[in-house]
Amino acid sequence: MSTVPRSSFASTIAQRVVLVVMLLTLWWLASLRMPQFVLPGPLRVAHAFVGLLQSGTFFNDLGITLYRVVGGFLLAAAVGAPLGIALGSNPRVAHFFEPLLSIVNTVSSAIWAVFAIIWFGISNSTTIFVVFMTAMPLILTNVWQGALTVDSNHVELARSFRMSQTQIMRKIFLPTILPHFFAGARLAFGFGWRVSLVAETIGSSNGIGYRLRQAADLVQTDQVFAWTVTLVVLMLALEAGVLKPLERHLFRWKKTD
C-alpha cells in the first residue's frame, strides 16, 4: 500500500492554513461594514467562545448532543443495515416495501421532530428518534444498493462448496456491501448532526440546539457564531480523527495505485 509523501502532506496542510486565513480575513472585512448584532467579527466570536467555556454548561451541552447523535446513528445502523441486506437479497420483498421507504424519505426532519415531541415529550428520546428517522433510510438505501451489486454467480459457487449462510455473508456479501454502508453511514452521520439541532431547538431543554435558540432569542449573535464554529471544528475533527482512519482500516485490503 502506498503512502502519502511528506511533501504532499505538508502542501495540503499549507493550503488548508491559507484557506482558513482567507476565510477569516473575508469574515473580518465583512464584519467592519455591518452591525455587530448582524455579523460579529472573529475576535468578538472568540471572546464569546471563551465565555461559553467559562459558563459551566458548555461541555455538558456538547456531550449531550454528541450522545443523542451517536445514539440515533447507531440505532439507525443496527436497523438499516440488516433491512438493506434483506431488501437487496430478496427482490420481491424490496418491491413490496419500496413505496414505504419513499414515504419515509419524503417526510422532513422538522415533521419527525413534531411527532417525537408528541410521543416522547421533552427528552433525549426526541432527538434520538429524529436522528434515527433521518439516518436510517440513508443507510438502508445504500446497503440495499450494495447488496444488489453482489455477484449471484459467486453466491451460487459458494453454495456449491456447501458454505454456510454466515460464511457467504462474511466472505461475499460483506466485502461488497461495506463500501456502500460506509458511504451511507458518513452521509447519515452528517445529516444526523444537522437534524439533531432542529430537534433540540424545538424539543429540548439542553444541548447545542437549545443554546443556539436561546442565544438567538436574546440576539447574542456572537454566541450563535461561537456555537456554529464549535460544531464545524468538531465535525472536522471527527472526520479526520475517526471516520477517515476507520475507512482506511476497513479498506486496507484494497490496492492503491
Structure explained in plain terms:
- The protein contains 10 helices and no strands.
- By secondary structure, the protein is an all-alpha fold.
- The protein has a single domain (56-250), classed as MetI-like fold (Orthogonal Bundle), CATH 1.10.3720.10.
- Helix 3 (58-89) runs parallel beside helix 6 and helix 3 crosses helix 8.
- The N and C termini lie close together (8 Å).
- The model has no long low-confidence stretch (mean pLDDT 83).
Strand-helix topology:
Elements: H1 6-32, H2 42-53, H3 58-89, H4 91-106, H5 109-120, H6 124-148, H7 152-160, H8 165-203, H9 208-217, H10 221-250
Shape descriptor reads: globular
Distance between the termini: 8 Å
Mean pLDDT across residues: 83
| CATH domain class | Mainly Alpha
Q: Low-confidence stretches at least 5 residues in length (pLDDT < 50)?
A: none
Instruction: Examine the coordinates and then state which fold CATH places here, giving the name of the CATH topology.
Output: MetI-like fold
Strand content: under 5%
CA radius of gyration: 22 Å
Oligomer: single chain
The string of secondary-structure elements, in order, is HHHHHHHHHH
User: What's the architecture, going by CATH?
Assistant: Orthogonal Bundle
Number of domains: 1
Number of contiguous helices: 10
Helix content: over 70%
Q: Compute the number of strand runs.
A: 0
Described by strand count, sense and barrel closure, the largest sheet is: none
Question: At the fourth CATH level, what is the homologous superfamily?
Answer: MetI-like
| Helix-strand makeup class | mainly alpha
